[in-house]
Amino acid sequence: MLCVKPYGMLCKIFVVPFYEMWDLPDIFVQTLWEGLVGGTLYSLIALGFVLVFKASGVFNFAQGIMVVFAALSLVGLHSLGVPAFLALILAAGIMFVLAYSVERVVLRPLVNQPDIILFMATFGLTYFLIGLGELIFGGDPKVMITKQLYIPTGALSFDFGGGRVELQKLDITAMVVASIMVAGLAVFFSKTRIGRALRAVADSHKAALSVGISLNQIWVIVWFAAGLVALVTGIMWGARSEVSFALEIIALKALPVLILGGFTSIPGAIVGGLIIGIGEKVGEIYWGPLLGGGIESWLAYMIALAFLLFRPQGLFGEKIIERV
Amino acid sequence: MRMKGLLVGAVLAATAVTPALVSSASAQDSIYIPLFTYRTGPFANSGIPIANGMVDYLNMLNERDGGIGGVKLVIEECETGYNTEKGLACYESTKVKNPVVVGPWSTGITLPLIPRASVDKIPILSMAYGLSASAVGDTFPWVFNPPATYWDGLSMAISYIGSKEGGLQKLKGKTIGYLFFDGGYGREPIPLLESFAKKYGFEVKMYPVPPAEMQNQSGQWLNVRKDKPDYMIMWGWGAMNPTAVKEAARIKYPMDKFIGIWWSGGEDDARPTGGEAKGYTTLNFTAVGSNYPAIQDIIKHVVSKGKSQAEKDRVGEAHYNKGIYNSVLIAEAIRNAQKITGKKVVTGEDVRRGLETLTISAQRWKELGLEGFGSPVALSCADHNGHQPAYMQQWDGTKWVKISDWIQPLKDDVLPLLKAAADDYVKKNAGWPKRTESCDKPS
Q1: Rounded Cα–Cα distance for residues A94 and A101 (Å)
Q2: Nearest chain A Cα distance for residue B214, angstroms
Q3: Does the pLDDT value for residue B16 go beyond 80?
Q4: pLDDT in tens, A14-60
Q5: Which residues of B touch A240 (CB under 8 A)?
């Protein structure tokens, strides 16, 4: 109706979406909110990748299955009669055991091996955890223990622009918890001795070793931190849907976030996550129907690649200059 | 070195001989039925109850009756993870053991197996899934997809919506949203949906859900909120279903106008949303519940003896019963093949004939201890589907409740399109073999 020939398609691309944003402000605000929530959760997943990458130069392919494993451990322990918060602590303990085992069994024997070997080792770890998870917990999906963890449900709704905007309490909680977690990790890794040691390791393994930093200890700490991030991500995403092995696929959404934010930057993971989250939602709602819908899965990569044209090192990544 | 060589030789010899041994053992005194299942991966919530139902019914026949016609059934599960490559690997590994029928349990796995069926002489049973056009028996003599195709299912959903609105003609000007798994399965009914939209004058809004976004559907549902479709139809599977039901409840979409295909109607699809999913409606072609003599026999002979992977309180759930239905089709086809050929130990070629002349009347359902469990089934050489009716079930907050009578598919619309699709398949697959298999009389 708004668009007339011969400018139909141009109009649908450049006019209609903005008209809809103006005409239905409640939907626009809701879209931004959903993008913000999704982006925060992407940031959390990306953070897990960044922590491990900074410490060991390894792209941890197992981060996705760690999300599933952590959430399944929590729900599985609770189903055995363990009180929710004790199960939460025990699930964190399981992630510590996993971190310790990974350092002992996977990382330590592969020290000084090329990065690609370590990367492939995380592939192996992924399939091991899938098998172990299915063996222990079974393949059937579980319902997240939202109420038992006192995670509020329901929605806060308010009228806006002639419509209604709904903020799910679960999403608000996810935002708050993720923000606290990110802030806590940022402070931990920038203000503490261990944090400084991590940064030293990230700069140079050999230099760090020469000043007495224990590489093994740092790896355990970092993998444990990644495990905690996975646990929180699993709880939040599991509560939105269900705890199943399908959650592993969602972790792949961290890839464009990492491309955008840089593999070594915690602020990059946060800002990148938010840009991807909001960008893909706005794209899906306002331009998706023009392309048949379901564009979120590749739009995130397009956004990341568009940024890379201008900043190849990512938003906050370090610019590498090599003399030749 | 010599020892090593001997060892390698022994292993190779054993590898070569074992299939032959298994195969000859199977051929002599038992009937081999591989069951492609998925108890792992993103689709396990749908796959597990179906697998349990399939396995438990056939095990019950072994335990209670000593198999079929006195011949023991050798049942072997092969885990596909709903993954096409793994499914094809399952096919290759089980093919050598002379299976009498193969059920791929995935449209993605079914499609590449269709051309192989006539070559390998193994009939494919894709129960209410797969290529809709394979219902045309003259074109696809080795493929069977009873009791209804996806196109039948869609026509029933449209028919149901029409009945709620006071007639199909009242659909004019309405908007129907289609939320679908963005793969072969979800795309299968789209041509018919577009055809219905033209015929009845309603608008269709498409909401594809890419496999990677099954648990991340807020974008699709924001679009639903923006578009305000009058009805939503869902073709979902695995983790996509419970996420969609949760998202629908989140945006307060009227749940009784949210209608799923039969594969979106498992307890695990609605249960996570609980009371807020009340009103969510799906098609189903089997009864729900365990109050049938045959299912009680499953509990007695299999579940209570610890020979099942199903928990006792989940026996009789919607997807579990679909698994039973699938195994009833297999068992009855084998029985029928034994009757036609006079042989006790039947082959894939025999079971193809058994499927092609399969009839399960209301009386037969009763004899099986499953009275009223499904509508009567009747296949023929020309019709490998039967185009049987289904009914609507609705989630009452805790369980599925039947809310409609049997709804007949709109055959006048579906059958010509199926024939055209089958012809189109032949055109696109140059050298597609003409049917040479003879036609038996119905059982």
Answers
A1: 10
A2: 8
A3: no
A4: 899 999 999 999 999 999 999 999 999 888 889 889 888 888 778 89
A5: 215, 243, 246
Average pLDDT, stretch A3-13? 80
Contact flag B226-A285 (C-beta cutoff 8 Å): yes
- Please report whether residue A262 resides in a domain: no
Contact call for A27 and B225, based on CB within 8 A: yes
> What are the sequence ranges of the domains in chain B?
30-148+288-387+419-428, 150-287+393-411
Question: How many folded domains does chain A comprise?
Answer: 1
- CATH topology agreement for domains B30-148+288-387+419-428 and B150-287+393-411: yes
Q: Is A278 within the bounds of a domain?
A: no
Q: Please tell me the CATH code under which domain B30-148+288-387+419-428 is placed.
A: 3.40.50.2300
Closest CB from B39, B210, B246 relative to A294:
B210
Whether B211 sits inside 8 A of A250 (CB atoms) is no
**Residue from B46, B225, B237 to probe the interface with A (highest A Cβ count within 10 Å):** B225
Domain that holds residue A176: 38-251
Biggest alpha carbon distance in chain A?
72
* Spatial distance between the Cα atoms of A97 and A89, rounded to a whole number of angstroms: 12
3-class DSSP assignment, residue B211: helix
Nearest to A222 by CA among A264, A176, A256: A264
Helix (H, G, I), strand (E, B) or coil at B251: coil
Correct CATH for B150-287+393-411 of 3.40.50.2300, 1.20.58.100, 2.130.10.10, 3.30.360.10? 3.40.50.2300
Q: Kindly indicate whether the ipTM for this predicted assembly is greater than 0.90, answering yes or no.
A: no
Query: Which residue in A296, A298, A299, A301 has the most chain B C-beta atoms within 10 A of its own C-beta, making it the best mutation to test that interface?
Result: A296
For residue B71, the cross-strand partners are B68
The confidence score (pLDDT) of residue A181 equals 87
| Angstrom distance (rounded) from CA A8 to CA A164 | 31
Whether residue B222 and residue A30 make contact (CB cut-off 8 A), yes or no, is yes
User: Which chain A residues contact residue B50 at CB under 8 A?
Assistant: none
Q: What is the pLDDT of residues A209-252, one digit of tens each?
A: 888 888 888 889 999 999 999 999 999 988 888 888 888 887 78
Distance of CA A58 to the CA centre of its chain: 16
Q: A278 to chain B: nearest residue by CA?
A: B219
Contact A47, A183 (CB under 8 A): no
In a domain, A304, yes or no: no
Residues 163..222 of A with a Cβ closer than 8 Å to B: which? 166, 168
